[in-house]
Structures are given as C-alpha cells and as structure tokens.
Amino acid sequence: xxxxxxxxxxxxxxxxxxxxxxxxxxxxxxxxxxxxxxxxxxxxxxxxxxxxxxxxxxxxxxxxxxxxxxxxxxxxxxxxxxxxxxxxxxxxxxxxxxxxxxxxxxxxxxxxxxxxxxxxxxxxxxxxxxxxxxxxxxxxxxxxxxxxxxxxxxxxxxxxxxxxxxxxxxxxxxxxxxxxxxxxxxxxxxxxxxxxxxxxxxxxxxxxxxxxxxxxxxxxxxxxxxxxxxxxxxxxxxxxxxxxxxxxxxxxxxxxxxxxx
Length: 261
Known about the structure:
The protein is built from 10 helices and 9 strands. The chain has 261 residues and is α/β, with parallel strands linked by helices.
C-alpha cells in the first residue's frame, strides 16, 4: 500500500465523479497531455481512457514513479523529477494540455514560475489545476475583494481563469482538513505588454507589503511621489492596495520600466 508523504503535500484524489469532471473540462483525444504529480495514477487512468496522442507525467516521488512504470508500461512517458526543476517549454514540440493536482505546499510557486516564464508564445493550450480552496480564491479574486492581491494580479495578467468547482475533503486519501478548488486556465490573447514580469512582482510586493494601509507610502517609495504618474493613471493615494484594478498595476509596472530605461 502506498502511503502519502506529508512532506510532498500528497493527497490522492479518489472521487470518481470529480475525476470524470476533470477529464471532461477539455477535449483530450489526440492531444498532447502533461500531468503534474500523478501520484497513484487515479487521474492518469481517466486521461488515458480519453485517448491522448502523447502523454507525459512528472512525478517527484521515486516509489510512485516506479509504480506508475509498472502500472502503465509504455502508455506514457514518466519524468521522475521535481516540477520546479523542469522547463516544460523544452519538453514538447507542440502545445500541451496540463492537468495537475498540485501539492499544496508549492502550488503558488509552480503557477508563478509558469507565468513568469511565459513569452508571447504560450507552451500550453489550457491548464486544468487543483489548488487549496483558499489559494484558488486568491487566484480568481478581483479588486475590491479581501482575497485580491499579488497572486490575483499576476495570474490574471496573461490568463483567463474560470473556477470549475469546489471539492470536499473526503474526495481525497488521505483526507485533508480543507476544501480544494478546480480551476481552468486559458491563454489571454490580448494582455498588457510588460518587458520583465519580475517588475510586476516587485510593484505588487511593495504595494501589498501592508495591504491595510493607504498606497501613498509604496507609491512614494517607487515613484518618489511623481504627480505626473498620479495624474496620468488617475490614482487616489488614499486608496488601499486592493482598491486598484488589474490594469492599474500593469500600468504602474510599465511606468516603473519607463523610469528605469
């Protein structure tokens, strides 16, 4: 019997209804598929039944990777490595559909890595990813919402995000203490042009360093109180970070890059 490793954030999805819901989010037949953290292969079986053209999985756990090799033989390619060490852009010659029950402890790091590494040519068609519900709520949040923050702004920059469903704890083994959420991501055709995504990370980090305070201090810290930028972007310094919409943060990043060029 395979025991889940808490250190790797493992919770294996066993709910057949949810497994069916996941594979029916998007057309799989004759597509190239990547699954992150297949674990015991529960979702993997459902994906294979949909007849993908090519199927690759990335599994960090050595024991699980060996079990997957025994179970699925030549039906899929198994990469036994940490997803954070893998450059997915180099794995495929065509765009892929990505499925993942992401480990709770590194889910935001994985998503942030993918977004930061995106160029104008997306390496994926869609992402079908599961997160801790609290994290998912932050990803899909819009401005003027208490969940809105750095992750919301980064994720919505180049991606259109749709929440599919919430998933109860007893859909997993072992049973986590919290709910999960399934999110569907597709590339945004028209997104705000930012030269370096790390500048967007910096702007949001400074502005949200104290989300309950007004934005006057972070604005002055980055732009030295430049009234021209305030007027151009129509920003009220009495607002709090969560009151500025996505586009304002993208414009602030653009102004920051202009100052540094």
